[in-house]
Amino acid sequence: TEKQTDFTEQPHELSSIKKVIGIVSGKGGVGKSLVTSLLAVTMQRRGHSSAILDADITGPSIPKAFGIKKKAMANELGLFPIKSATGIDIMSVNLLLENDTDPVVWRGPIIANTVKQFWTDVIWNNVDFMFIDMPPGTGDVPLTVFQSVKVDGIIIVTSPQELVSMIVAKAVKMAQMMNVPIVGIVENMSSFKCPDCDKEYKIFGDSNIENIAAEYNLDILAKLPIDPRLAAACDGGLIELFSGDWFDSVAEILEKDIAE
Ligand code: ADP
Fold first, then answer.
1. Average pLDDT, the chain
2. Residue 1 has what pLDDT?
3. Distance from residue 33's CA to the centre of ligand 1 (Å)
4. Which protein residue's CA is at the shortest distance from atom 13 of ligand 1?
5. Average pLDDT, stretch 186-203?
6. pLDDT score of 128
7. What is the model's pTM?
8. Cα angle value 191/65/137 (rounded, 5°)
9. Atom number of ligand 1 nearest to Cα 30
10. N or C: which end of the chain has fewer CB within 10 A?
11. Ligand 1 binding pocket, CB closer than 6 Å
């Protein structure tokens, strides 16, 4: 099989990016953007410089989660990402659209080309960890993105509402095709803790995630509960203020990777 590096595009000559992690999901609405944001915030808090490339072109939610209203600027050298309040570099189609409620109705090849340009034309200055909020699904668009960007690892986001075994199987197959290792699975919305009685509820039932992870020899990196404070932080543009240690163990895995 072809190696992923045989056809990937070179980043901008002024860019410096150490590690690139792609966040994938089976469909939209399972929390892929939230997980991407929390990973970037966690790594930034731990002293690394983080970046987010928002490749979810038709459903870009990263700028809103970070409360970014400014538009991205370009000059003859290239396109510049916007820095979040804590210094995370962000590029998203919403930072380019004049009116960010305009729907993006582009077809697959144009979407894939836009993401490619986010990689080749944006000046990503001194990035330790770049997190790519991938287009949802395991179809043509994410596949094309994986072909143009050199990704070092994939994190799969699932939720117990879905047919998790099928999604994981497809993501594993995509990763194998692209020759990219899977860092592991994050299960989102796995439970809800009642704020009054502290009792934990499995709202969507049992996901069977342990068995599925074992079947494919994957690690479960984190189980994120349904937490109204997370939704409020996303909606209010305050995701950088989240509190919780859900991603500390993932951070350790990613840090070990970069030290090697
Ligand atoms: P995706 O990127 O997969 O389409 P999002 O990350 O945009 O999904 O999440 C969809 C919505 O669900 C957002 O409004 C987000 O704030 C909310 N959400 C996701 N995960 C959680 C969670 N664990 N607790 C509370 N709200 C969540």
1. 91
2. 45
3. 7
4. 231
5. 91
6. 97
7. 0.94
8. 65
9. 3
10. C
11. 25, 28-34, 59, 61, 188-189, 224, 226-227, 230-231, 234
Q: What is the ipTM metric for this complex?
A: 0.99
Tell me which residue of 6, 95, 81, 94 sits closest to 49, measured CA to CA.
81
Residue with tokens 């990263």, as numbered in its chain? 62
Tokens of 127: 């990035």
Q: Are 28 and 18 in contact (CB under 8 A)?
A: no
Between CA 183 and CA 253 the distance in angstroms is 8
Atom of ligand 1 lying closest to residue 37 CA? 6
Mean pLDDT across 132-151 = 88
Best residue among 32, 34, 37 to mutate for probing ligand 1's pocket (most ligand atoms within 8 Å of CB) is: 34
pLDDT of residue 5: 54
Domain boundaries in the chain? 13-253
First CA to last CA distance, the chain: 26
Looking at 89-93, 151-155, 177-181, which range is the least confident one?
177-181
Q: Counting atoms of ligand 1 from 1, which one is nearest the CA of 234?
A: 16
Task: Return the CATH superfamily for domain 13-253.
Answer: P-loop containing nucleotide triphosphate hydrolases (3.40.50.300)
Cβ atoms of 26 and 155 closer than 8 Å = no
DSSP string of 152-176, one letter each residue: SEEEEEE-TTS-HHHHHHHHHHHHH
- Asked whether residue 36 carries a pLDDT value surpassing 60, the answer given is yes
Separation between Cα atoms, residue 125 and residue 15, nearest integer Å: 5
With tokens 């983080």, the residue in question is 50
